[in-house]
Automatic annotation (TrEMBL):
Domain called N-acetyltransferase: residue spans: 18-180
InterPro entries: Acyl_CoA_acyltransferase, GNAT_dom, N-acetyltransferase
One Pfam family named in its UniProt record: Acetyltransf_3
Record-given protein name: GNAT family N-acetyltransferase
């Protein structure tokens, strides 16, 4: 399937413990609860949402960006509870070339291998289904946990961008990337039935 065909309906990806799915209005409160935590947003570059209504508007923007083929925002949903505990995002697509990767996770879910498991499903989708050549991730040098996750999934550090635009901030930023030719992960991912 081509890049454009991947945007005909939202791709739901299944991992061992999680469904990566489109965010729904019923998810707004959980998203607000974890994304209002300063520790979660400390390295995000944007302010926390003001309230649940702001989150609902954000979900509409995510949906519209998907329809315009600009971004895919997966909510990480526990198979046991169906609650959203984080997100994985591929966006700023240069078709046939590259995308930016970003992600976040509720603080009480840290250090359980959740983000590594989720990204090991999202990245093959980017390379095999979207046919990307490069996936890159920008990370603040102080964000040791995120750097650790990127290195575990084989991303390579390219260098330091000085006072780079990171959300609403200008801060030194490390750039990591993974190229299709370097990718050694799964060639098949499980796209869940709708």
């Amino acid at each position: 399937m081509s890049f454009n065909e991947q945007f005909q309906q939202f791709p739901i990806i299944e991992t061992e413990r999680f469904l990566l799915r489109e965010l729904q209005p019923d998810d707004a409160e959980e998203y607000y609860n974890y994304f209002s935590d300063h520790e979660v947003t400390r390295f995000w570059g944007y302010d926390s949402p003001k309230d649940v209504k702001t989150v609902m508007n954000t979900f509409v923007r995510f949906s519209n960006a998907f329809k315009r083929k600009e971004m895919i925002v997966w909510g990480i949903s526990s198979k046991t509870t169906n609650k959203i505990i984080g997100t994985c995002i591929l966006g700023n697509f240069v078709r046939g070339s590259m995308a930016n990767l970003s992600y976040n996770l509720a603080r009480e879910q840290w250090k359980q291998g959740i983000m590594e498991e989720s990204l090991r499903a999202v990245i093959p989708f980017g390379f095999h289904h979207l046919e990307l050549h490069r996936i890159q991730a920008a990370v603040m040098p102080e964000n040791i946990a995120s750097i650790h996750v990127l290195e575990k999934i084989e991303f390579k550090k390219e260098g330091l961008l000085r006072e780079y635009s990171f959300g609403t901030l200008f801060t030194d930023t490390l750039m990591y990337s993974l190229l299709a030719g370097e990718f050694k992960g799964a060639s098949v991912i499980h796209l869940a039935d709708k």
